[in-house]
Amino acid sequence: MTFTIKGLFSFKSGGRTLATALLLTLATASTAKAATISVSSTCTFAKAVSSINGQSTRSGCSKSGTYGTSDTVNVPAGSFPIATAVDITRSMTIHGAGKSNSTLYAVSGLSNTSQYAIQVANPNILAKIDNLSLIGDEAVAGILVNGENDPNVNDNNLELDQVVVQSFGDSGIRNEGGRVVVRNSEFYVNSGVYGGAIYNGNAPNDNGTVTVGSLIAKYSWISLNYASALGGGIYSTGKLDIRSTNLGQNHSDGDGGAIYVNTTVNNASCSVSRDTPSAPQSSISLNSADQGFSIISTTIPCDLHTTTGSSNSSPYCTPGNVTGCPQ
Predict the structure, then answer these.
(1) How many domains, in total, are found in the chain?
(2) Which of 215, 258, 285, 296 could make an S-S bridge to 247, C-beta 3.0–4.6 Å?
């Protein structure tokens, strides 16, 4: 932003021009405020997130910095329980000490009181999670993304980087109309009815329109997941973009051992490819589906260009709607 102030350089203020003083004031005012709260035995994960949500430090927690627009929940090395469902209502970063070092785990019985461990509950925010493991329990979803009534479909709602999502019973991620980006992350031994590892769906809005869910996965592993209906690895009715990612050894009791795309919504899409021309190819191999196909797409074509693996051959790909598969 450019400010034009006429005649200002002829005035002095304490040895500096008034313009210089004004610019310093503007720079100080525009500096983003940020607070950090660390999870501990007294400051649970739920309390830490609630503190940032409300911009007020909860009992048992302490913070450094000043609450603002770039606040962080720090998850140190160790294992920390999620005893109650945690709603994220304000943009924040949840940062761990490494996916092999920091663990958040849903306690046994969480499914008796909630359908998820973590929810991105505000469609106008971005939650970033990195460098930790998220371990599940029974019938809950790992992360629920609520994109209903989102007025801006060009921003992200959830970004994962260096995260392990494991052992959830209602999909590792359940995306309902949000925009989700997954990088360098792993989804193992999750299960669900539709989409063992990831359910990527759309959300009906109050005005009768539909917000199309979007998922981009880069340099990630989606393996050993299970769906009792469709899509052992991924079930999608929205925009699906898989880049340089491995889907292996997933299973479905119905169709789509690896991927099942089922949609009639405008702007839905399906693409499995490299992240860049020089990046590794996506690999789809050793998936199984009791109904005969590991990759199936209805209504819209699913492009499997630049992919490798045994599932890129018939009968793993349903005829007609999956390109890149021999018929």
Answers:
(1) 1
(2) 258
